[in-house]
């Protein structure tokens, strides 16, 4: 596989000195909030009565849209409220997990070893999937591993109940309804059977955790047996993931992410900025680490620079394919986790620079204090919500630049203290 991509980097092979911590703990879920209060001022109906009334309305609405009433009633009738899917104010965790902890977990020793086994045991399927979709097997394996531990943890919630809970009331009414209609479409087309519909409380199904709209629009019957079996058939699941990435613009011959170094005078305000060509990055003093060089062909590829651990941590150029992975799950941490695991499956270390693991993260309340202070100093962060998003990082960069600090937009306790002391 790598031989196909190496036209962009002339490699001096670096042995995979992977130091992967073995903390393959499941992602921590937010603590359950206190039970929702039953009684609302708007109505005296019980939740069960409101849910039944919603079912009747949904069945009528679906029938009016041309779905067979009996089929819809049979499907929706037995649905029960899913307690996990109930709309509650999720409590903010005090500290969010640092990115290195997420990336370590993504490429844990057990996930890597299990992934190697899967690459071996599923080789014939991967050969066929790669040939059809031109998406590399290691990336597909990494998605399979991160989504469901290679099909081990697919969720055993009744999907109709979970989505009906969303559709009936709360913030996710529109989402729930759209997803239910996607399921009706698939059942109508005969792509899946109602008895297959299990998944996560959030509505994701099968080995690759497709929500119904994604399932309807991108799942394939790779083994051509008449059923899109993302739960039990590896070809269908991996073929569907490959089809999804392919349709979102995956480029077989291009890299996903390359670790780089920057010259001492580098202007970090380019971090998280617009994409530039490799030639432009080179002119700005950005070069691959570890004795690698860009080929002439690579010069015209576009890439964005990220430095999620700040200027002292790993710095990475991300290419079009990185953004394609984010179409699967819109998170930089996720795309990095997938890429680090996929490279590890090839025997390569995608990231070699140590993360600033000694840094002390700032709490949710500290993040709000940071945002209030930046607003007060005239750096507009928008709302004070305790979420360090692109706007807040942009404001941090502007403040850092004004103080002659590397403008990487990264914040931990010492930087926060400097800001608050101002
Ligand atoms: Ca099939």
Question: What does this protein structure show overall?
Answer:
The chain is an alpha+beta fold and 422 residues long. Among the domains are: 2-11 and 251-345, Lysozyme; 364-420, Muramoyl-pentapeptide Carboxypeptidase, domain 1 (Orthogonal Bundle). 44% of the residues lie in helices and 7% in strands. The protein contains 17 helices and nine strands. The protein has helices at 2-5, 47-64, 69-76, 99-106, 109-121, 123-133, 137-148, 159-168, 173-189, 212-218, 234-247, 278-283, 320-328, 332-345, 364-376, 390-402, 413-420; strands at 9-10, 157-158, 198-199, 257-262, 276-277, 286-288, 293-294, 302-306, 315-318. The protein has a five-stranded antiparallel β-sheet with strand order 5-8-9-4-6. It has a two-stranded antiparallel ribbon with strand order 1-7. Strands 2-3 form a two-stranded antiparallel ribbon. A hairpin with an 8-residue loop joins β8 (302-306) and β9. It is globular. The protein starts with a helix and ends with a helix. Residues 221, 223, 225, 227-229, 233, 236 line the site of calcium ion.
């Amino acid at each position: 596989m790598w031989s196909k991509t190496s036209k962009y980097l002339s490699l001096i092979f670096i042995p995979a000195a992977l130091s992967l911590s073995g903390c393959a703990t499941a992602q921590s879920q937010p603590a359950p909030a206190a039970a929702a209060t039953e009684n609302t001022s708007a109505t005296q109906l019980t939740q069960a009565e409101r849910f039944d009334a919603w079912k009747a309305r949904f069945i009528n609405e679906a029938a009016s849209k041309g779905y067979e009433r009996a089929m819809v009633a049979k499907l929706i009738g037995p649905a029960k409220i899913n307690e996990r899917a109930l709309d509650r104010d999720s409590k903010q965790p005090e500290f969010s997990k640092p990115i290195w902890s997420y990336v370590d977990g993504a490429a844990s020793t057990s996930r890597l070893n299990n992934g190697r086994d899967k690459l071996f045991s599923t080789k014939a399927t991967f050969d066929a999937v790669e040939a059809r979709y031109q998406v590399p097997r290691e990336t597909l394996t990494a998605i399979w591993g991160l989504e469901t531990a290679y099909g081990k943890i697919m969720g055993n919630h009744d999907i109709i109940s979970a989505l009906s809970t969303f559709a009936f009331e709360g913030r996710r009414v529109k989402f729930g309804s759209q997803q239910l209609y996607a399921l009706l479409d698939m059942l109508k087309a005969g792509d899946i059977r109602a008895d297959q519909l299990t998944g996560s409380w959030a509505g994701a199904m099968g080995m690759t955790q497709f929500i119904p709209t994604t399932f309807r629009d991108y799942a394939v019957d790779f083994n051509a047996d008449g059923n899109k079996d993302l739960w039990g058939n590896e070809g269908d699941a991996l073929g569907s993931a490959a089809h999804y990435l392919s349709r979102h613009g995956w480029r077989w011959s291009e890299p996903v992410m390359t670790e780089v170094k920057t010259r001492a005078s580098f202007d970090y305000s380019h971090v998280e900025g617009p994409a530039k060509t490799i030639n432009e990055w080179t002119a700005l003093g950005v070069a691959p680490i570890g004795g690698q060089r860009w080929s002439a062909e690579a010069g015209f590829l576009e890439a964005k620079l990220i430095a999620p651990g700040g200027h002292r941590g790993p710095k990475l150029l991300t290419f079009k394919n990185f953004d394609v992975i984010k179409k699967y799950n819109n998170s930089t941490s996720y795309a990095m986790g997938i890429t680090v695991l996929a490279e590890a499956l090839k025997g390569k270390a995608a990231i070699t620079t140590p993360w600033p693991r000694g840094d002390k993260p700032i709490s949710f309340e500290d993040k709000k204090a940071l945002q209030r202070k930046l607003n007060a100093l005239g750096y507009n962060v928008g709302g004070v919500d305790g979420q360090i998003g692109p706007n807040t990082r942009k404001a941090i960069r502007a403040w850092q630049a004004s103080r002659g600090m590397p403008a990487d937009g990264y914040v931990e306790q010492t930087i926060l203290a400097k800001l608050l002391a101002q």
